[in-house]
């Protein structure tokens, strides 16, 4: 596993609580969907984050949400360009298989910053045959929406209207059946993943066609 120091190039503001950190790539190799460990080189404190950038991007990027009472996310929020962070990895097996890369219909379901690995998927594989459901609280939390083809992206908001669908992603799934041969990738909070998995299995999808990554 690689451990290397990376200089922060830019901080991209998305919402008051959410931002993207762009680091120098520094030779870091990964498969889209994997994650890395970001570590404070001074204190040793660390957290895991899915990689947001494509595997061809010159920068290594991470989508971060500042968590209330979360010391590490606040530390990241106050980093300035030129700062250095230790990045370890890559880790994880939440990657696309040959069926998906060959054009198998694929449904990506995310809540919040769980969209990170899907951003990496889509940016790395422009020909991907996908549909994306993104569940958030408010319309302004459609992180990186411009990165996805409009006809492939469905924003679901649970607390405010003004999105493509007003309600949770699981409500949307209950109203829109999924074909049995669809391969599904789910990333987000455990409650959504459990409920969505049950709905998908109810449509006849096999467990092998439902891949999950839990964001705590």
UniProtKB/TrEMBL annotation:
GO terms for molecular function: dioxygenase activity. Pfam families: FAD_binding_6 (PF00970), NAD_binding_1 (PF00175). This is Ferredoxin--NADP+ reductase/benzoate/toluate 1,2-dioxygenase reductase subunit. It comes from the Bacteria. Residues 1-97 form the FAD-binding FR-type domain. The lineage of its organism: Bacteria, Pseudomonadati, Bacteroidota, Bacteroidia, Marinilabiliales. Keywords: Dioxygenase, Oxidoreductase. It comes from Mangrovibacterium marinum. InterPro entries: Cbr1-like_FAD-bd_dom, FAD-bd_FR_type, Flavoprot_Pyr_Nucl_cyt_Rdtase, FNR_nucleotide-bd, MRET, OxRdtase_FAD/NAD-bd, Riboflavin_synthase-like_b-brl. The keyword Oxidoreductase applies. The keyword Transport does not apply.
């Amino acid at each position: 596993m690689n451990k290397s120091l990376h200089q922060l190039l830019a901080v991209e503001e998305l919402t008051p609580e959410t931002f993207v950190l762009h680091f120098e790539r520094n030779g870091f190799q990964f498969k889209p969907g994997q994650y890395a460990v970001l570590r404070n080189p001074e204190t040793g404190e660390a957290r895991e984050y899915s990689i947001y950038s494509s595997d061809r991007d010159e920068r290594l990027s991470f989508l971060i949400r500042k968590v209330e009472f979360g010391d590490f996310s606040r530390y990241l929020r106050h980093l300035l360009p030129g700062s250095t962070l230790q990045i370890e990895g890559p880790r994880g097996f939440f990657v696309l298989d040959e069926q998906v890369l060959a054009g198998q219909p694929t449904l990506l379901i995310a809540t919040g910053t769980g969209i990170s690995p899907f951003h990496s998927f889509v940016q790395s594989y422009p020909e991907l045959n996908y549909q994306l459901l993104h569940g958030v609280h408010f319309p302004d939390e459609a992180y990186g929406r411009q990165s996805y083809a409009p006809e492939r992206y469905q924003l679901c908001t649970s607390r405010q209207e003004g999105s493509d669908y007003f309600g949770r992603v699981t409500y949307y799934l209950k109203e829109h059946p999924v074909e049995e041969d669809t391969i599904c990738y789910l990333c987000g909070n455990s409650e959504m993943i459990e409920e969505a998995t049950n709905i998908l299995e109810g449509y006849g999808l096999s467990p092998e066609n439902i891949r999950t990554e839990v964001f705590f």
